[in-house]
């Protein structure tokens, strides 16, 4: 691989897509993982060949909006391809000269990896593609090789202990829990104080601007005023911390899953004793749903209380894009080439190529 060949780093989350070039500090392109098709009142969905992507789909009128990736799994290959096309067009990429690194969610199926590889190599003729564990990349973004990573995104939470960049799969915990569950629970709370059924944008705004995670050290909650687009004024009180609480107690919204702190406790408990101290001193949180103020203090408090040991939580400022940042770093290292699936290899060894080129 030539040192001048541009490497495109991609992180396809259920909530947001992050795209940009290796060596950069942040992605060039971040947009919601949604695809929209115009519809007409009498004619039904439009047959337009130009679907709306990201914010344009969410803000457009008469648009049917779909999420092509749910719980880290591609539900609609056609819509996924539309997202890839949008990235290539927006970043003015042709493909033939661009090596690709994709952040791979923990537990991603081989079938999904094959679908993605085939599209990139056979449609865009990229010279190579590599899938690197998103947990390992999130850990790398903090400059560490050993630790336990809790990734919490829009629809899924993965907890993965890692030793010298090797993921301990027997200890991985995956929960169908994320920001969308905070949205749903927060919406139910806000409806009780006067927010209308259709105020989804307002719910997201309250979540991002006013919500926080409560720990015992948190100061008493201060109610915050909020004005709806209709002009209705609300006072947001305990809802500010009760909404994100579902990430720690999923049963609040009837979700059968472990909360973040409990998932970390169980995952670390499955590891060998000699590793536990290192893991507890390197607990890395990553993903958009870890951006609530107070979340690091709460996790530390929970783990210290349950395990009776010292705990160190790493909550990097750039953790919202932690996996992408780690990918940007990893793609510039000499070892990256070992994990690239070249076009010739794909054509002759596709049946077992992922066993040979798997990182974690």
UniProtKB/TrEMBL annotation:
InterPro entries: Actin, ATPase_NBD. Pfam families: Actin (PF00022). GO terms for cellular component: actin cytoskeleton. PANTHER family: ACTIN (PTHR11937). Belongs to the actin family. This is Actin family protein.
